[in-house]
Fold these 2 entries.
Entry 1:
Amino acid sequence: MLRYLYFDTYIANNTNISFLIKSPAIKDIWLFNCIEGSQFNFLNQGFKLNNISKIIIPNLHISSISGLLGLFSTLNLIGRTKSLHIYAPIDLKYYLDLGKKYSKTNFSYILYIHVLKTGLIINQYGCRIYSLNYCNCYQFFITQSEQSGTFYLDKAKSNYLLPGPLYGKLKRGFSFLFPDGFILNGFYFTSSNILGCQISCLFSSFYTRSAFESMYNARLILFM
């Protein structure tokens, strides 16, 4: 099942599911797992398949990749031209090559396969994804950086502050001391910052101490 991830604190425990991450500021969608029926669930929730930009596959179990070739074929049929990035174990390449050979299909878009390894794998849009290899299955830890609050433009103009680089610095919380001793505090012109968070995506029933330490501060834990 495809699930939209809201950054609230809870634990989801299910097996054989796909889920996605979508930033409200961009169209790109990152998909974790691609089980059979993913396309139906994806469309049923009102998302567009062509907005998928990254697919993360933790292992080569059939439950994780059974919907992959069908999704690729659908993207080809709808005329996708922009590239697609796949993050998966190295042997996924051979599975895709055999699938294309058997179906006699070539894709109209470029498919980039990034071989998973322990460490940082994605760093975009204020979101970082780290992978940890454990018993030939990868666990993922997703961190979202703290975001600056909303800048009060009307309040800045009412204080006779001219638009320019100063606005950006005030939004980031900088303070300025004037020669007469007056302090211009950036927090006065912005709402409270949006706290960052961590999501742990675990695909195994057995974990090491390092895995537990990594997910200690997680606000959302997914046991897949």
Note: The chain is about 25% helix and 30% strand.
Entry 2:
Amino acid sequence: MEERQYCSASGAPIALRRRQHSASCRELAVRCPRLQLRSLSAVTSAVWLAAYGLFALSENSMVLSAAIFITLVGLIIYLHFVKVDQESLLVIGSLGIQVTSSYASGKESTTFIEMSQVKDVVINEAIHMQKVIYYLCILLQDPGDPQGISEVVPLFQSSKPRLDCLIELYKSCQEILEQGRTDPQVE
């Protein structure tokens, strides 16, 4: 297992972990920074302070209760549906590609793409808010047209690694995909 430190597109530190399970199976995981207690405390304090200010003006205790309730519900929604701790890619040359997102709450979301559907893995670029961003994506083969592409599946959308990290991810994926293209498939 090999781990390297990189930066995300926003400049936050991320870690790329590569694990070789066999010659045709590799796991690539990008770990995002964990939720900081300092930032969580700052947001919670700001909401509760604003609620206390409204309480002092209106003398209605429902304002405080609502602020506490909204803060707790918001935190649960953020941890369960938004904050991703790790995104991983398991590339198995003969089977397919498994994409997993692990959330801060412990929830995991997994998608599997069969290798027969994968046309290629590429680094794509997009323009976003006056800046060029790069992202890794899987091109899915169009069943009706062998030369066509039916869908583009973006990877690592939460961690948003920079180009240097994406190149490492791309090379690792291409090594496994090339083995599958050169080795004859046994049916």
Note: Helices lie at 37-58, 61-82, 163-182.
